[in-house]
Structures are given as structure tokens and as C-alpha cells.
Amino acid sequence: MPMILVDGQEIAVKEGENILEACLNAGLDLPYFCWHPSMGSIGSCRQCALVQYQNEEDTKGRIVMGCMTPVVEGARFSLKAENATEFREAVVESLMLNHPHDCPVCAEGGECHLQDMTVMVGHRDRRYTGKKNTYRNQYLGPLIHHEMNRCIACYRCERYYRDYAGGKDLGAQASHDHVYFGRHEEGILESEFSGNLVEVCPTGVFTDKPFLKQYSRKWDLQSGPSICQGCAVGCNIAPGERYGKVKRVHNRYHDEVNGYFICDRGRFGSGYLNSDLRLDYAGIKKPDGSFFAVHQQQALETAAGWVAGKKVAAIGSPRASLEANYMLRELVGKKNFVPGYSDSEAELIGSILSILQSTTAINPSIKKMESADAILVLGEDVTNTAPRVALALRQSVRNKAFELAEQMGLPSWQDAAVRNLAQDQLSPMIIVSAVDTRLDDVASQCVSLAPDQIASFGHAVAAALKGGKSDNPEADATAKILKSAKNPLIISGSSMGNQGIINSAAAVAEALNTPETMLSFCIPECNSMGLALLTQNDACSLADLVNKAPKLDALIILENDLYRRGDRAEIDQLLASGIKVITLDMYENSTLDQSDLVLPAASYAESQGTLVSSEGRAQRFYPVHSPAVERMPSWQWILQLAGAVGHKKLSALEHLDQVITACAQSNKDLKGLIDVAPLNSFRNLGSKIPRQTHRYSGRTAMNSGVSVHEPQQPKDLESPLSFSMEGLNRGQPSSLTPFVWSPGWNSNQSLQKFQSEVDGPLKGGSSGVRLIKSSQSGAVVSSEVGEVTLKQHQWQLVPMQQIHGSDELSAHTDEMAELAGHGFIAIGEKVAEKLSVSPGDGLLVRQGDLECALEVRLLSRVAKNCIGFSVGYAETQGLIAGSLVSLEVDTNWQRSSPEMIASDKAAFEQVITEGGAHNV
Amino acid sequence: MLSELRTMWEVLKHTFTKAETVEYPEQMPYLAPRYRGRIVLTRDPDGEERCVACNLCAAACPVDCIALQKDTREDGTWYPEFFRINFSRCIMCGMCEEACPTYAIQLTPDFEMCEYDRQNMVYEKENLLINGVGKYPDYNFYRVSGMKTASKDKGEALNEARPIDTKSLLP
């Protein structure tokens, strides 16, 4: 380890890092703007200046930029030298020349890196008396607010949006002190990762628009360590609450999972938590179909009366916590428990689990995926099914560039130089899919095949890898690429609803048979994997339940809208079969409307539980605020119900820790659950960890509008966190970090004070426990591939997951709904020509008796005889993946507006009201 | 003995000095304009609410007796949806006034705040807002801020140049 000297103090540094990283690792405060741990250095802001001395005799030294200067053994630096401090102050002074007098009305205020750095360098008074530059703002969609006057031209936004996230529609314009960061014209930002601009921008140019509508300062937010419920990736998030509303979601760093970034569904998709559809009180259905509210206790007594000593079945949920599912399964017995995903999905996820439990390939974390140097994607539009994984894939294709840089002796953090060197050379990524995907732009090859042919393609690649030569030259070429790679990655998933594709992915990974081969699957929901681990393929299917419903007395449904899981007629039959239906959910939906008793469940922001991500990582989420009104966490409802009916095993339990222990003991695969997070009894230097900042305001006035007598702070009896500002938020296990703050570092850049080293794990270690242990025996999969015979004028339906709109819960957020637009049918240009329709027209899609009128979208590439449809939209409910349909032009179709697709409409209207496009 | 006599003399001497106490409430004491009493919210010279809901007063308050929620007007400017001071907690320290960047919150020379019911010590925005500028007659934050408002376009704030035409290549 090289040693360097900073202000006379010896510091051990890491080989190859730069002096800025070395200083931050040593806990020294060196101001910076443009450098970002995952985006490297470009030396554009000149803020991290310090003095470097040539040798012991050199007393004058020269100013160097910390982020651009590599550390070498024995190098001498000074942060405190007068010319360095003056230089840094002068840089901030010049950055502030044009900065508007906006802080009180800026959503960044209080967590602004520019504010922090200004205070840190000691700049106070503006000496320049000239006029300030101003700019017009742009409308950038419902998620991001733009205020260009506040820009300090660090280029972080452009580097993140274009270079890191692969966006095309945001960039730097104009020159010298006129430089402008925005779109070529006003409109909705296209990238699915645009929300990270809010955290990447060191000042208030890009701010969170939904948060701005109900804004509170960072110091006023009560935060909790949580896990995103948007998909199965398991990104760590930190939602912030005030006045009983979850106001915003910030990224919570996890070195192996999401790093510094989350997707827009994760960041902006929690608005449904404050929706009017949320349930506040338990309700019993009256004969006229409406509900009347009852007290918790009365609801429990009613439920107990229907359940005690009766034949009861239950339906779990992949969007509920593992604990709640476990309790429900124990309550009704294994044979009467339906996991809660659709029957076809249950099979797919079951097989994914058994493949991961036997494969010789590595089941990679997201961080690990970034090391892949050749990628084969089989049948997944990863950006829409596991968005954060797609962002990682965009980084792994850059491994070619890093390889070239290494040959040249160029450090990987020299971002501009590395990009210059590689130009557009990328590591190979082969995408085999039925329709175009959002990663096509960085793929070395895109192959469009029908779902079953994708599986055949996979098996052909596997055959070619095993030495045989297939009759498919594309598969041969793919096999060659994978074989020559050091860290090949195979990604597939369940979104196509096709077992053959999943099997073929496993076959390719097994055929590769190198110790560094990685195999990963995208699965649909936040706890799909947990449910598969819990039930171990030993559960009742939804279809069986429908058949045996008449023999039952009662049915308990846990956080599940069944109409999204199965055929409408079947579900109607189940719910109307005369049995008592008890539903536990947090918001109103069609299943809930059909129930006899509804119990209001707490949301993820009000409850605690464990989720298992697609890589098998069990992670705990904690409440951000205590449950409002009469809501109660699902596991607690079931626990109390079990107590009321006198269930032997469950009524002995009292706290969540006991439930977790019982759950871990129930099944050998869940053993690791106990170690996921510290027990309730954990204390950080004798006190609980505060969810509120030490500057939390309004404690004696928040509730005084209702009553001047101040209520006691709510108590959290289940976790080592408290709803209070007392305690210590430092040095605890990283799964218990509700927010990041450090003296002098109010922005999210204070994260580096929580990391063990720059870009490394948090000081408390990487959180979560990986539950899937592979036996390394090798996955044995069937090479059987389905076959579809099409009649004339028939097409095969291919499901298209949408990041905005396909997810059940986030779709109830206004901004998500706006971006989701209407359900659509996506066709290739040839089909469009044949039917003479253009985007925005209507098509009638006939699947058996079902007929849907859907808006047309065009695909840039599509497999022969395939058409795509949006999954999870009300308009496309009932359409089944892989089924055969006929198309007809809808003559009664009304175009939503001329020559415009739904997502552009909002931009258009905004432009009208604001008086035209105005970035001049 | 001598000291006792001296003490009595000293006390009796005060019989002839002028009283320091006043006959309150018939006789009101003089309170300087900067006296720290009941808090008000003032308006700018144009008659609009001065408070921009920046939350600095709430953060500065040592007894945490100020709570507010930001809302946005149609033109994008900020204002408090509600603004509440719990005077039963307030210690009239004036930190909120010092923290206020817009001169909205000001302390007044009124200390007469007595209630039989403590709930009445909770003042909402309509109780706090006055129809005047208070101690600072001329200041209007939005004339200085770079934010576009209904009455002011980009580049029209104090000391601002006209918006840049990013499509121009001229220096």
C-alpha cells in the first residue's frame, strides 16, 4: 500500500486511486463537484484543488486537481496550504457569480452540495457587481423540475444521463458561459432512470417534481430504511415522510445491489401510498354491497367467527412480506395455501428457483453483473422488467473500454480519456427477443425471434458450446463470443411466460461451464422469490382452489388483486361461490369489492418485513412512519386472528422477531432469515436509531392544530429504530441506516462518510442474506421447446412489460399513470402497412371470445408473426401471453389527439399553456 | 443595633423616591419597536404574503413550535398552505425572525397573550397574517429571486441580464 503525505500526515492509500478519493477515504474534507464515485473524474469543476510538492525541499508546490492526480508512493500534498484554500474559495466565488437568489424557494435547499461546499470553502460575499446570467427553463415531464439559473456547469447531469444511463435526449448546448443543459426541445425525458438527476445534480437545477408539490425540507423528513416494492431487484430505498404522507423516495446505497441509482418506478412510483384508494378502516359488507366501517376488534371477532373450526383456504401474495405469507400459510395449512401468483407464473418461478439451486453458474449480484464482458439476453426487455439490472448492463458493455484502458496503463477513473480511447467500442451483448428492447442501442447484435424460437436459439447456442455445430450461424457466432469471454453473463426471465426460454438460458450456462459464468433471471414482483422459497412447490394452485371452493367455508386473501392473476370468469366464480371472503389489503381494488370483510393493511412504509429479491437476497424493510388510522401490518392482523381462533403454534408468538425465527425454522432454505438484520433488542451505543434528523422541526406545533396537548411519540416495538430524533445514526449495521447526514455534509454526498471506502460497502457491511445456495450439481433442464402453428391472418401475442404502468401499485401514482398512457398493441411496420394503420390508430384484437380495442404503436423490430401488447393495463386485461389472435382495424376508433402518442400529449398541453417552446 | 437603624433609614428614604412600577394595565409601558413579543406574518409592499414557506424559521425554532407546509401558486411561487405557531410553547427568542430570508416573520411589541384555554394559544396563518409590511417597508423577495413569477419574467429580477439565447453563437 503506497503511503502519501497530506499536510504532514501520513496516509495509506490504495494503488491506482486518485488523491481526491484518497483524501475522502482518509476522512479529510476536500470539496468537489464534478467527480462522482461511479462516473469517475473529468476535472471540469476545478474545485478539488490542492497543492502538490515535488520533494521535501519544495516549499512552494503547484496546484493540482485532486480528482485528476493519481497517488504515487511518497507523494506530498497539502489541503491547507494558503494558495489551495484561496483557489478553492475563488472557484466557488466564480461559480456563484450567476447563482440566483433562490435558496429559500429551491427544493435542493438544506441538502444542497453547492451550499455545503460554499460553506466549506468559506465564501460569503458576492463581490462581482455585474448582472447575472439567466436562462429559460424547460418542461421535462411530470417527474423532473428544471431551473436552469441554478446551474454551475459541472456536467454531472450530462455525464450521468448520456454516458452512464444511455439517455439520448439531454445534453449540453451553447458555449462558454452560455452553456445550457436540457433537451433539444421541451418534452418528457425518455430515460427510465431520469430521476437520478435529482441526486446527481449538486444544486437545484433538476429537482423531484412530485416532491415539490408537497415539499418538505430534508431535515423535516422522517426516513426509514426500506426496500423498493416496484420489481424483484430489491433496490434499497429511503422514503421520507412528514405529516403522515410519504413525500419522496431517495436512493439508499447498497454496494452490491443498487449502488447510487434507482429507476423512476422506484423513485416516483410510491405516490399511491397517499392515494384516496387507501383503506383506513375495517369494513363489513352490507347486503346492498356497500361496506360499513367497524372497529379493529369487531372486525377480528367477525373474522375469527368465520375461520375458527371451519374449512378455510388462503391466497398469499408476492407483494406482501415473507412473514405475512408465512403466518397465513401456517394458519390455514400448506394444502390450503395458494401462493398468489398466477398458475403459469408459479411454475416459471418454481423452475427458476430450482435452476438457481442446482446450477454451476454464479448467481450474480448487480455489482457482479457489471463485470460481465459478454452478455446474452434471452427474451427479456430488462429495462422494463428489472430496470436497475439494465442500468448495470449498460455499464458492463463498457468493460471493453476498461480493458483497452488497462492495456494503455490508463486508470479507469479517467473517464473522458477512457471514453476517448474506446470511442464506440463496446463489449458484446446479444439480445434475442421477440420485439425491440430498450437496450438495443448498446447491443452488438439483436435477433428477433418468436418466443419458442428464442428457446430453440438458446439450445442451439448450448449445443454449439458443447462442441457440436448447430445449423444456426447466428447461434454459432453467439457461442463463440460467449466462449471467448472471461465473465459471460446469461440473462433471461419469466416475463415472456415461456418455460422453454428459461430452460434454454440454463442450458447455455451449463454448456459454458466456466467458473466465472453468470446466470441471472428477471422475475416479476418484489417477493416472488420469497414465496417460491416459502412454498417449495408445495402449494395449492389457483385452479384447484376454484374447483374446491364450494367445499370451503371461508377464504382469506392477502394483499392480492386476483383479477390480475387469473381468468376473470374463474375469479368471479371463486369469489361468488357463497364462501366468506376476508381480504387484507391496503387499497381498494376489484377483489376487495367482492369481499365480505376487508381489513386495512399497512403499506410497506408503515410496516416491517422481509422481501427476497430475484438474486435470492433477503432484505428487511422498516416502517417510515407508524400506521395511520386503523391500519395494521398484515402479519399483525394474521397474528391477532390466529390468537382469536386459538391457533396453537401462532398464538404463542408475539413479536415480529419471533415470527421471523419461526419462519426461518420452518424451512431449511429460509434459515438465513434470522441474520438478515439485527434483532429488535439491538441498540446503537445504548439507544435506538433515530428516524428523524437532529434538526427535525415543528415537534410541538405539528399536531397542535388538533390539540395543544402534545401526544407521545409513536413507539416502534418491533425494530431497533425509533420515531424520534434522539439517538445515534452512525456506525450501526447498514440495514438500519434511515438517512445519510454528516456535519458539514447535508446533501446525499455525505454518503461517503458512511462508506468504508469510496464506492465500497457501507461501514456496517453489505446488508441482506443470500438465501439461494447452489448445490453445484448442474441444472438439468428439458430441451423441449413449444411449437405454435399459426393459421392465416393470425398473430402470436408477446407480452411487453412497461416500467410505467405494468406494475400494480405504482400505476396508481398520478405521474406514473400519466407516463403509462393507454394500453397498446405494438406491431411491426409491415403489419401496419398491410392493415394500413399508423401509430395512434385503433386495432381490434380478438383472442377467442375476447375483443380489445387498442391503440397502435410501432415496433422498430419484431419477430415474424408476433405482435406485442402492454401487460398489466386495464385495456389489455384478459390477453394472454403466447396466445394467437386476429387483428382488424377499429373503424370507430377516436385518436386521442392528432399525430401524437399519449405520452407526448402532456408535453404538448404544457407548451400551449406556457406560451410555446421557449428555450431561447 | 446601629446597622438595624441604618437599614430602616435606607428603607424609609425610598418613601420619597419616584416609583419604578406602573399602574398596568391602566398605564401602558413603553415597548421599543424591536421588542420581542407576539409573532406576526407580514405582507410585501404589493400586498402579497411574504412567507415563501422555506421552513427556516421552523428549523431555527429552539422549542419547535412552528409548523408549516409549502404549497405552490399557479405561477410557481411558493407560499405556506398552513402556518401554525404554538404560542403556548413560544419563548419569544426571535430566532425565527433572524432566520427569515424574506422579512415575513416578525416579532411585535405585544406581549399581552393570555387565554383561559391553552388551545387558543395555537395561532394559524389567518391569525398571524397582518395587512402590512412591518418593520421592513420595501422588501419583496420575489423581485430579487431568479424565479419566474406572474408579474416578472426570467431575467427581470434585480441585477439580472436578459435570458440567454442558447442557439446563438455570438459571445
UniProtKB/TrEMBL annotation, chain A:
One GO-annotated biological process of the protein: ATP synthesis coupled electron transport
GO MF annotations, alphabetized: 2 iron, 2 sulfur cluster binding; 4 iron, 4 sulfur cluster binding; metal ion binding; NADH dehydrogenase (ubiquinone) activity; NADH dehydrogenase activity; quinone binding
Domain 4Fe-4S His(Cys)3-ligated-type: 83-122
Record-linked InterPro entries: 2Fe-2S_ferredoxin-like_sf, 2Fe-2S_ferredoxin-type, Asp_de-COase-like_dom_sf, Mopterin_OxRdtase, Mopterin_OxRdtase_4Fe-4S_dom, NADH_UbQ_OxRdtase_75kDa_su_CS, NADH_UbQ_OxRdtase_ferredoxin, NADH_UbQ_OxRdtase_Gsu
Catalytic activity of the protein: a quinone + NADH + 5 H(+)(in) = a quinol + NAD(+) + 4 H(+)(out)
Keywords: 2Fe-2S, 4Fe-4S, Iron, Iron-sulfur, Metal-binding, NAD, Oxidoreductase, Quinone, Translocase, Ubiquinone
PANTHER family documented for this protein: NADH-QUINONE OXIDOREDUCTASE SUBUNIT G, RESPIRATORY NITRATE REDUCTASE
UniProt family annotation: Belongs to the complex I 75 kDa subunit family.
Protein name: NADH-quinone oxidoreductase subunit G
Organism: SAR92 clade bacterium
Gene encoding the protein: nuoG
From TrEMBL, chain B:
Reaction(s) catalysed (UniProt annotation): a quinone + NADH + 5 H(+)(in) = a quinol + NAD(+) + 4 H(+)(out)
Cofactor(s), by name: [4Fe-4S] cluster
Signal sequence annotation: none
Localisation per UniProt entry: Cell inner membrane; Cell membrane
PROSITE patterns in alphabetical order: 4FE4S_FER_1, 4FE4S_FER_2
Keywords for this protein: 4Fe-4S, Cell membrane, Iron, Iron-sulfur, Membrane, Metal-binding, NAD, Oxidoreductase, Quinone, Repeat, Translocase, Ubiquinone
Binding site for [4Fe-4S] cluster 1: C51, C54, C57, C100
GO biological process: aerobic respiration
Superkingdom per UniProt: Bacteria
Chain sites annotated for binding [4Fe-4S] cluster 2: C61, C90, C93, C96
InterPro entries per the UniProt record, alphabetical: 4Fe4S_Fe-S-bd, 4Fe4S_Fe_S_CS, NADH_quinone_OxRdtase_chainI
An example Gene Ontology molecular-function term: quinone binding
GO cellular component, one term: plasma membrane
Classification via Pfam families: Fer4_7
Keyword Iron: yes
Domain 4Fe-4S ferredoxin-type: 41-71, 81-110
Cofactor notes: Binds 2 [4Fe-4S] clusters per subunit.
E.C. numbers: 7.1.1.-
Entry membrane topology: Peripheral membrane protein
Alphabetical list of HAMAP family matching this protein: NDH1_NuoI (MF_01351)
Family: Belongs to the complex I 23 kDa subunit family.
Complex formation: NDH-1 is composed of 14 different subunits. Subunits NuoA, H, J, K, L, M, N constitute the membrane sector of the complex.
Function: NDH-1 shuttles electrons from NADH, via FMN and iron-sulfur (Fe-S) centers, to quinones in the respiratory chain. The immediate electron acceptor for the enzyme in this species is believed to be ubiquinone. Couples the redox reaction to proton translocation (for every two electrons transferred, four hydrogen ions are translocated across the cytoplasmic membrane), and thus conserves the redox energy in a proton gradient.
Protein name: NADH-quinone oxidoreductase subunit I
Natural source organism: SAR92 clade bacterium
Gene designation per UniProt: nuoI
